[in-house]
Design brief:
The chain is an alpha/beta fold. The protein is 38% helix and 17% strand.
């Protein structure tokens, strides 16, 4: 991706959103993005919700990805877990394959995998967990693209395995000075003001950088930008960001295209 803010016609970004998690604005947010990450049973979702999400993504021409999690519906997959790597491999692969099967029956193609919640954040720093997740994704299909936190161990593990990657940033999350996300357990971890999240998102896209909570300027490769569908003003942010990107002649397109 180009990062010269004075030549916006050369800039493109993949906007992604999580789907099938019970969000009331799923359909409207889907119209604003280029990729969807579909919950596939670990933290949310079932066969019907996956099928509905796949059909909705197909109607909108949006790239389809799997959004596997620790199997922990009670905590929405947001509680860190220490479980055997064999179990992680089996559970991640099972979730991906469940969505792959539905895609096949609906005439759709699964193109990427983005872990959810605690699985995502642990894999950002845990080499062994990251490598296990990558092995499970590769077992489902070596052509699948791995989506992970920019600069994270998951991205490094996927590259070592020869997998395609998309490095991700978050429009509505605060960052620590090491490039990790501020824990949701801490106040201010999420950005609730649409104008502030919009400003951060545009800075990320145009400058390939973000400012951490302590003021550190962090440069990073940003291929895809996540818009959380469960935020208080998620739809408002999605529409505002899409409009501003259009005004700046920044192309919104799936990284898989």
């Amino acid at each position: 991706m180009a990062n010269n803010a004075t030549e916006n016609t050369n800039i493109s970004i993949d906007l992604n959103a999580d789907l099938g998690e019970g969000g009331a604005d799923d359909a409207a947010i889907l119209a604003c993005v280029s990729s969807a990450n579909i919950a596939c049973g670990g933290h949310a979702g079932d066969e019907q919700s996956m099928r509905d999400a796949v059909r909705a993504a197909l109607r909108c021409g949006v790239a389809i990805g799997a959004h596997p999690s620790f199997v922990d519906r009670e905590n929405f997959g947001r509680t860190e877990m220490q479980i055997p790597m064999e179990q992680v491999f089996d559970e991640v692969l099972e979730q991906i394959e469940a969505l792959q099967h539905i895609c096949a029956t609906e005439g759709a193609q699964l193109v990427h995998v983005k872990p959810h919640g605690a699985l995502y954040n642990q894999a950002a720093r845990d080499v062994t967990l990251a490598e296990t997740i990558v092995k499970a994704i590769a077992a489902a299909g070596s052509q699948l693209r791995v989506v992970g936190l920019a600069g994270s161990e998951l991205i490094h593990a996927a590259r070592r395995a020869g997998m395609a990657v998309s490095e991700e940033a978050f429009a509505d999350r605060r960052y620590n000075s090491d490039g990790t996300l501020v824990s949701r357990k801490l106040p201010g971890a999420t950005i609730d003001e649409v104008s502030v999240a919009l400003q951060q998102a545009l800075h990320m896209v145009e400058q390939q950088a973000v400012t951490s909570v302590d003021g550190t300027a962090l440069s990073m490769q940003i291929d895809t930008l996540c818009l959380h569908g469960d935020g208080a003003h998620a739809l408002q942010l999605a529409r505002a960001l899409r409009a501003h990107l259009s005004q700046r002649e920044i192309k919104v397109t799936s990284a898989s295209k």
